[in-house]
């Protein structure tokens, strides 16, 4: 049996190749993501471990990470360095003055910083044996007008020694002359680095010559980091500052990097999941058809004495061989994919070394578990079916396995699962709780997908009769035969179409969700934004106070209302603690925004010591007007703010953040001193036109490339662009699903051509031309692809409407169906069908007629 299995595998290796490609793709994405993330993690672990000081003393940790920033920089007294230096076991200390809330521009007002999301960091120059850079040309900065620039940034932005740059920092902008270039001795994480001398960094970056962002400490020989940390904490007070050893700093930095790595890893695993799911249909179909074509062969084996277990084991062995080959090739492809990602990161400024690629023990294990597991599971049902072939099948031309079996079991199971899925989706639509609605949505999506796959063959005959109903009229007997070929085996047609259905259901659902979000935000911007213009950064980051001053001084500018952000932790009456971002506004908010209130008004919410919040959030957590809410601000500052108003906006939680918390700028200036504005709402002065004001504002802000002027239309475009990022990922997933689905259609048609060799020979013998034969196969392919598209779109539109119902609970109440996308998907599916049929149709038309008729 083993010898027969190996010969059978080698005899059908061409037919199994397309199935192997699906395994290769899924394994490649799994192994590539693991290799890439392991390589980045190892590289940065080395960087953090080699550059961290033995002990650092920093501002007290406020546990408010991950929220929109206030622009304020937490500092410690620089005099701590002298106090720490006196602690037993300290060999050396130095002051750190480093900030990321800056922009650096050249003489043409073009930004010198990275465009990839990495920060621009300005810091004091204090070289040690642990510095990530070394001075390679020029000299160290000496005085307030000099600076160093890292070599990578200097090369990308054509900056040379002697050039003048402008640093836009929170205390104000200032010019520096580049007097030296510093080159990275470790991995460059993609940031731009500007170095100043220490007094300049303290006064110009922090606005206080006696402030520091931290104190770096070097331990004396023989003193451990943990022991030194305890001594320093005892000397300064254990609760006044944050103390970290080198290992703790490295872990903290690695945890921050982990979020970035998780995004890449989960995106790639998403691709792997789609490839795996669609590949399952392909493999099931391939093995089902191969077993159907080998009915007589399997019958002969049974007649010669092979029992059912041996036949089933033979088919599963073939599947294991296929999985082994696919996994091996997929692992190799994953290494290539990881190499490509490393090179891509280099193009974005993160200079990883491909020679240090990490292939951990878990990567090949995961690759073979995925490849072998998927193939084995997908081949199990066809293997069981093969074991049921009787010895008598060797004596007759048996029908295609499963073609004539009734679909009653599928109907019952599909109906039960579908009813459960529909009930979950209905529950999602009528639920008033976001968490419950989201859970029911997930359950409904999974169950309805499973039900559609199970019941797909039942839908083949009614749907394809409609889709191919015009074929006989348009193409005559050729059209009629192509339609009947698609109807011949509903199981095969359903499984082939299911591969395409999965991807199209995903894209249809997400397209409805994104179109609904876009329409909701458009409606809300039209209704709420009352200002002529909004001045803000692309990524909502704060900007220096001088920007606000210059906007106020701009000719034609009338009212200017500031907005600031502050990360806060709020303790609610029901006992829950919520970490979120609060907004702060000037008192004349009503003149630039149309805020809808359920109770109270802007004056009550923006009063000193008061706050407002979203009415839905307040009901959920039993908050009432007049309640005093404990609020923790950055730096551990606590306050009790009185609830003055409830908003009833149509955007998520009132102001776009959890809870919709907002208060007056007086409150934020008291508890977050040194903060920066994140947006300015500007109205034109009486008698000044909007176009005139816009031109004046753009002229004023020409020196600040990080800040843009937007009107309502610009603001809508910004929101659309952010939503589009999610759609691009969905379209990429769709592209992968379509590639594998095309492989499935090609495989099905190719095996179908082999299966119908004798039939094709007879058709050719009675006068069917080659062009007619190719057309028949193309039409069969088109109707199968469009069938998959129709199922996918129907399923996806239902999912999308349910997603919109969940979004409506967050205020996004507009429903939009992107009909253009729907039409494009149907047309594209027909094109996919034509493309997939090219090779099988060409092969069928080249058959020798006599050889085909004589085919067994």
Please give a handful of descriptors for the protein shown.
856 residues; alpha+beta; 10-stranded mixed β-sheet; 23 strands; cell membrane; transmembrane helix; membrane; ABC transporter permease
**Rg from Cα:** 33 Å
Count, helices = 25
Count the beta strands.
23
- Any idea what the shape is? globular
Low-confidence stretches: 398-404
Structural category is alpha+beta
In percent, how helical is the residue content?
55-70%
Largest sheet, if any? 10 strands, mixed
Q: Give the overall average pLDDT.
A: 84
% residues in beta strands: 15-25%
- Assembly state: single chain
From the N-terminal CA to the C-terminal CA, the straight-line distance is 23 Å
Q: Can you walk me through this structure?
A:
It is a single chain. The protein is an alpha+beta fold. It contains 25 helices and 23 strands. Strand 8 (164-169) and strand 9 form a beta hairpin. Helix 1 (2-11) packs across helix 9 and helix 2 runs antiparallel to helix 7. The protein starts with a helix and ends with a helix. The relative contact order is 0.12. Residues 398-404 have low confidence and may be disordered. InterPro entries: ABC3_permease_C (IPR003838), MacB_PCD (IPR025857), Macrolide_Exporter_MacB (IPR050250).
List the helices and strands and how they pair.
Layout lengths: L1 H10 L1 H39 L3 E4 L17 E2 L2 H6 L4 E7 L6 E3 L14 E5 L8 E6 L7 E5 H6 L7 E6 L2 E13 L7 E5 L1 H8 L5 E2 L1 E6 L5 H12 L5 E4 H48 L1 H9 L4 H40 L14 H26 L20 H23 L3 H34 L3 H5 L1 H12 L1 H39 L4 E5 L7 H8 L4 E15 L5 E9 L11 E3 L2 H5 L3 E5 H6 L7 E6 L3 E11 L14 E3 H7 L7 E6 L5 H11 L6 E4 L1 H44 L1 H9 L4 H39 L10 H27 L3 H5 L3
Parallel strand pairs: 5-10, 7-9, 16-21, 18-20
Antiparallel strand pairs: 1-12, 1-13, 2-11, 3-12, 4-8, 6-9, 7-10, 8-9, 14-22, 14-23, 15-16, 15-19, 15-22, 17-20, 19-20
Helix pairs in contact: 1-9, 2-7, 2-9, 2-10, 2-21, 7-10, 7-15, 7-21, 9-10, 11-12, 11-23, 12-15, 12-23, 14-23, 15-21, 15-23, 21-24, 23-24
């Amino acid at each position: 049996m083993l010898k027969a299995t190996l010969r059978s595998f080698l005899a059908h290796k061409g037919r199994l190749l397309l199935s192997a490609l699906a395994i290769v793709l899924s394994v490649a994405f799994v192994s590539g993501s693991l290799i890439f993330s392991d390589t980045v993690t190892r590289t940065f672990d080395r960087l953090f471990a080699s550059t961290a000081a033995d002990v650092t003393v920093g501002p007290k940790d406020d546990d408010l990470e991950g929220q929109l920033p206030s622009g304020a920089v937490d500092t410690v007294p620089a005099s701590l360095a002298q106090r720490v230096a006196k602690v037993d076991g300290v060999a050396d200390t130095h002051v750190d003055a480093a900030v990321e809330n800056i922009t650096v521009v050249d003489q043409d007002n073009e930004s010198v910083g990275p465009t990839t999301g990495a920060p621009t960091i300005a810091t004091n120059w204090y070289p040690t044996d642990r510095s990530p850079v070394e001075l390679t040309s020029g000299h160290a900065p000496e005085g307030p007008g000099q600076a160093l620039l890292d070599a990578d940034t200097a090369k990308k932005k054509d900056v040379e020694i002697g050039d003048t740059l402008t640093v836009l920092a929170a205390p104000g902008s200032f010019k520096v002359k580049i007097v030296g270039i510093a080159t990275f001795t470790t991995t460059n994480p993609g940031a731009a680095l500007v170095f100043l001398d220490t007094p300049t960094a303290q006064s110009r970056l922090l606005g206080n010559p006696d402030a520091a962002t931290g104190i770096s400490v070097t331990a004396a020989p023989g003193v451990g980091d943990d022991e030194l940390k305890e001594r320093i904490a005892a000397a300064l007070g254990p609760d006044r500052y944050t103390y970290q050893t080198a290992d703790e700093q490295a872990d903290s930095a690695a945890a921050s990097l982990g979020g970035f790595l998780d995004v890449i890893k989960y995106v790639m695993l998403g691709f792997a999941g789609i490839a795996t799911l669609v590949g399952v249909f392909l493999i099931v179909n391939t093995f089902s058809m191969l077993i159907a074509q080998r009915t007589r062969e399997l019958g002969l084996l049974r007649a010669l004495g092979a029992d059912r277990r041996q036949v089933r084991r033979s088919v599963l062995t073939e599947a294991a061989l296929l999985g082994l080959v696919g996994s091996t090739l997929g692992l190799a492809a994953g290494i290539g994919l990881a190499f490509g990602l490393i090179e891509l990161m280099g193009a974005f400024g993160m200079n990883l070394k491909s020679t240090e690629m990490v292939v951990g023990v878990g990567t090949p294990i995961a690759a073979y578990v995925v490849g072998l597991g998927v193939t084995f599971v997908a081949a199990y049902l066809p293997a069981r079916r093969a074991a049921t072939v009787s010895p008598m099948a060797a004596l007759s031309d048996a029908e295609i396995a499963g073609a004539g079996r009734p679909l009653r079991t599928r109907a019952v199971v599909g109906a039960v699962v579908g009813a459960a899925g529909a009930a979950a989706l209905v529950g999602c639509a009528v639920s008033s709780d976001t968490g419950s609605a989201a859970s029911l949505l997930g359950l409904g999506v999974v169950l309805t997908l499973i039900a559609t796959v199970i019941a797909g063959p039942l839908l083949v005959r009614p749907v394809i009769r409609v889709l191919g109903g015009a074929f006989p009229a348009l193409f005559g007997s050729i059209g009629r035969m192509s339609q009947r070929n698609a109807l011949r085996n509903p199981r095969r047609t359903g499984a082939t179409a299911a591969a395409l259905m999965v991807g199209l259901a995903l894209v249809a659902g997400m397209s409805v969700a994104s179109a609904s979000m876009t329409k909701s935000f458009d409606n809300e911007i039209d209704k709420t934004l009352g200002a002529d213009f909004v001045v803000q950064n692309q990524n909502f980051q704060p900007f220096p106070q001088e920007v606000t001053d210059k906007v106020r001084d701009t000719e034609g500018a009338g009212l200017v209302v500031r907005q600031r952000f502050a990360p806060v932790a709020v303790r609610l009456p029901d006992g829950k603690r919520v970490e979120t971002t609060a907004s702060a506004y000037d008192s004349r908010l009503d003149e630039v925004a149309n805020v809808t209130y359920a109770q109270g008004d802007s004056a009550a919410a923006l009063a000193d010591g008061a706050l407002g919040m979203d009415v839905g959030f307040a009901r959920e957590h039993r908050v009432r007007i007049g309640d005093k809410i404990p609020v923790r601000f950055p730096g551990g500052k606590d306050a009790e703010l009185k609830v003055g108003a409830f908003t009833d906006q149509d955007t998520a939680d009132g102001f776009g953040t959890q809870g919709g918390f907002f208060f007056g700028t007086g409150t934020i200036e008291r508890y977050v001193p040194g903060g920066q504005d994140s947006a300015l709402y500007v109205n034109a002065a009486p008698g000044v036109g909007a176009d005139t004001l816009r031109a004046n504002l753009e002229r004023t802000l020409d020196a600040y490339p990080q800040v843009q002027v937007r009107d309502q239309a610009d603001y809508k475009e910004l929101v659309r662009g952010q939503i589009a990022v999610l759609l691009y990922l969905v379209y990429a997933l769709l592209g992968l699903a379509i590639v594998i689905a095309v492989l499935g259609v090609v495989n099905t048609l190719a095996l179908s051509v082999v299966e119908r060799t004798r039939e094709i020979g007879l058709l050719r013998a009675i006068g069917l031309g080659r062009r007619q034969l190719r057309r028949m196969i193309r039409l069969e392919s088109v109707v199968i692809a469009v069938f998959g598209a129709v199922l996918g779109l129907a399923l996806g539109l239902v999912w999308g409407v349910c997603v919109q119902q969940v979004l409506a609970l967050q205020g996004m109440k507009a429903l939009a169906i992107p009909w253009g996308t729907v039409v494009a998907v149907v047309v594209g599916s027909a094109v996919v069908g034509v493309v997939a049929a090219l090779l099988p149709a060409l092969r069928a038309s080249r058959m020798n007629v006599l050889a085909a008729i004589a085919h067994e």
